[in-house]
Amino acid sequence: MVYLDAASGEPLDPAGREAYLAALDEGWAGPDRLYREGRRARMLLDAAREAVAELLGCRADELVFTASGTAAVHQGVLGLARGRARAGTRIAVGAVEHSSVLHAVDLAVRRIGGDRVVLPVDGFGRVALGALADLLDQGAGPALAFAAIQSANHEVGTRQPVSAAARLLAEQGVPLLVDAAVTLGREPVPEGWAVLAGSARKWGGPAGVGVLAVRKGTRFAADWPEDERERGWVPGPVNVPAILGAATALRARAAEAEATAERHRELTTLLRTRIPELVPDVEVVGDPVDRAPHILTFSCLYASGEALLLELDRLDFAVSSGSSCTASTLTPSHVLEAMGVLTQGNVRVSLPWRVSAEDVERFLAVLPDAVRVARPQQAGGAAPGTDAAADGAPESAAPTETPQPELDIDAVGKLCPLPVIELGKRIRQVEVGGTVRVWADDPAARLDIPAWCRLTGQDYLGEETPDSRPGVTAYRVRRRE
Amino acid sequence: MVYLDAASGEPLDPAGREAYLAALDEGWAGPDRLYREGRRARMLLDAAREAVAELLGCRADELVFTASGTAAVHQGVLGLARGRARAGTRIAVGAVEHSSVLHAVDLAVRRIGGDRVVLPVDGFGRVALGALADLLDQGAGPALAFAAIQSANHEVGTRQPVSAAARLLAEQGVPLLVDAAVTLGREPVPEGWAVLAGSARKWGGPAGVGVLAVRKGTRFAADWPEDERERGWVPGPVNVPAILGAATALRARAAEAEATAERHRELTTLLRTRIPELVPDVEVVGDPVDRAPHILTFSCLYASGEALLLELDRLDFAVSSGSSCTASTLTPSHVLEAMGVLTQGNVRVSLPWRVSAEDVERFLAVLPDAVRVARPQQAGGAAPGTDAAADGAPESAAPTETPQPELDIDAVGKLCPLPVIELGKRIRQVEVGGTVRVWADDPAARLDIPAWCRLTGQDYLGEETPDSRPGVTAYRVRRRE
After folding, report:
1. What CATH number did the domain enclosing A364 receive?
2. DSSP SS3 for A116
3. Which residues of B touch A24 (CB under 8 A)?
4. Are residues A249 and A298 located together in one domain of the fold?
5. Same domain, B222 and B234
6. Which residues contact B54 (CB under 8 A, 6 or more apart)?
7. pLDDT digit string (tens) for B114-165?
8. Which of A174, A285, B134, B352 has a beta carbon 3.0–4.6 Å from A169's, enabling a disulfide?
9. Contact status, residue B147 vs residue B169, Cβ threshold 8 Å
10. Exposure pattern of A220-237 as b/e (b: 16+ CB <10 Å)?
11. Cofactors per UniProt (chains A, B) (predicted)?
12. Which of B45, B177, B239 to mutate to probe the A interface, most A CBs <10 Å?
């Protein structure tokens, strides 16, 4: 089994595991207890806190441990919003933040009676600093409570301009919250954060530990039941054995971070280069250079993300996906959506710490066939092996049909990638300059039809939602060639 | 080392530990992932959920796993309050609930714009059902959102009348939240709960797992950031390996629960009987019969709780305490306060699963000397070995002084147990029928001076807080004999 979904979490790092098991025996008592086992647990906790604080670049008394990375994000967002509520009630949040950040911000603005402004991203998924600057310039708008910008994106890897954003915000005394889960233990912590959140699982630590750092002087106030543990910033106990495992894993990772990052970068660069050579009609997304070293995402036209994931699993490769068919919500990834890129047949590869070049080569070897399996040409298309099937595009309309000036395609009830497949198959049934209307109720169609146009050189004209067909949208495409 | 603080948590149960370690290798992937490791984690999680649900007496789809017992309580309280907010905004909570319940209820009433009513307890710490009935009868009062009553008390062991309370509440369709942390895995789950919370650490499971069960039909709504995992009732991930350890530990415990409870009951009964025989001026509190089998609390007049804990630790016994000097807040346990019992020199003994009779005998053997060390008679009192010191009471005033009709004792700035020691030493300086005023700013004095009166047969007249000395209270005692 080749595991390529490290961004979701990895098996426990060996050093971290060893520390954790030892601490199960040594640090199981409550660190607030006065007796010996309690004092020992307290010492272990203090040592772990010092070690992690040093690695994060903060003081020990600025750092608390939470029950998970999600909890760190939630408590960071809610605590900062509550603490800053008198100073400002507007929260600026990057469009491609992890959903835990977005959900926490949604709740925070409800609680403080404020509003949320989403900072748009460019095609690479990078936050537009100009939008942030505009927000800060608006004399008439509400004052900002804080802004939330991740260190790098968890789906596409693109690094965010954290320090530049922090400087902009600092001019107006507005704090910056940074979800650094993607880069902690891999890259230096970016400068300028007022609140920093991370997840031990993402750096090879055990489940059940998150980190939340709050710079001294930052207004921060509990928005949860009172609890005197962890400075009142965390509603719940500390899991001392897990924290020890987390601290040990982080230290082990940090010691190898540069070398590992270099190795990961080479491998993801190889993937970025080779995949479009091996697989037709594929879009590799995210910044090719300014990115976290271990993450790569690409989307395949006409392919089902779920089918691709399952086929890769059958071939012993574990990856994840941002396609709608792989999400419990059946909507496509908000990250890909914000970037305006193709979402169907999406695969995210994230390299585990000790991934080998052989693992990656094996993946490249099986990928083309896996994509073919995930491309349902058989649904009325060419047989496998024909030219049309080989290059991925659905078989075009039979040449004897005369192209029409207009065409309506009814794809209602068909889920991604079928609406786009239909469009791909039938575009030549309309004359050059003619218009196709694709009727669909699939949420991914809103994103993938424009992306298809971009990738195939056609013109996207827009969408209409006529009252006559509630819940259905008509996407208009003009055939350019 | 003899560990007698099981109520805070115990080392990981061996069966649970084994299951946990195996699951670290098998269940580390996200259970929502489509690939093999994810599906395996999902299967392990589902199996654990079924097992725990069966042991708790609920359906699998009524049960979610939280990040800790504290989180289960918080989310139980906040979710029930939010779900019931249209039906009622008043929350009734037992006076001796765990502080996590009280803090969560405080926040819940703020959020739903309601109020909290504390249900008083009797001298044993049992909730007065009459007060609950009155609350339900009050036509004019706000409707009840819910009531929170624990299965048994974590400090004194007294069982609460959960089922009777549930029946009362059910007549008006008001749900009952039960914090069952003290009894899960030891005693049958009481009937009638709508929301049930528990902590795996308390049943020998690993840290990082709580259980929250919500009966179908109970109005329950997330009061935290959206998160589709665990039915939206939990803002955060599931720790599959820890959950497996928790389920295995619970099953192992449940299999031995009856025999262990019997053994524990014999040992705590022994302690309840022997301690007053061995140690003078001691109050053993809580219901002697209707109690959890493994918990015992007693308070020692004239003793410092912290000194007693540390002396017992020096002698290799780990216990906990409800005395103010052992609390980070420097206030005495709210449980002992609500019961109106002595708080100084307080020791809570809670038996670990495999405690032996020898452990308990050894504890009884060292206790008298440990209490002597914790009783600072030397502070102006008899030397150790004299009659006065042997029976615990501070040396009385020298017989040549003539008793006065009134006496002021200035104990301002002196912390528990010094104000009571002063009172004990000098009560005979006032004539029979005369009044002593003890001036003190120690929070425990409010509870311990009345308790001292009760234990020594004197009359407690009440307290005054004159404006002339802000922050200081005068406690009035009449010498009866």
Report:
1. 3.90.1150.10
2. strand
3. 11-12, 17, 206
4. no
5. yes
6. none
7. 999 999 999 999 999 999 999 998 766 789 999 999 999 999 999 999 999 9
8. A174
9. yes
10. bebbbbebebbeebbbbb
11. pyridoxal 5'-phosphate
12. B239
Which of these is catalytic: A58, A300, A325, A416?
A: A416
Which 3 state secondary structure label does DSSP give B268?
A: helix
Number of inter-chain CB pairs under 8 A, A vs B: 169
For residue B126, which amino acid is it? R
Task: Give how far B424 is from chain A: nearest CA, Å.
Answer: 28
Best CA proximity match to B350, nearest among B3, B12, B16, B70: B3
**Span B421-474, pLDDT tens digits:** 999 999 999 999 999 999 999 999 999 999 999 999 999 999 999 888 888 999
Q: Are B290 and B125 a contacting pair, CB within 8 Å?
A: no
- Both B247 and B290 in one domain: the answer is no
d(CA A204, CA A20): 12
- Could you tell me the two tokens for B324? 């103010």
Which residue in this structure is represented by tokens 């029930």?
B80
Domain that holds residue A423: 404-478
CA B50: distance to chain centroid? 30
User: What is the total count of domains within chain A?
Assistant: 3
**Lookup: tokens for B399:** 């017989």
Write the CA distances from A50 to A53, A248, A390, integer angstroms: 5, 12, 57
Do A219 and A100 belong together in one domain? yes
Say yes or no: A30 and A178 in one domain.
Answer: yes
Count other C-beta atoms under 10 Å from residue A461's C-beta.
15
Report the helix count and the strand count for chain A, using DSSP H and E: 13, 16
Q: What is the average pLDDT across B227-237?
A: 83
Residue among A9, A70, A309 whose CB faces B35 most closely: A309
Whether A300 sits among the annotated catalytic residues: the reply is: no
The rounded distance, in Å, linking the Cα atoms of A342 and A337 is 8
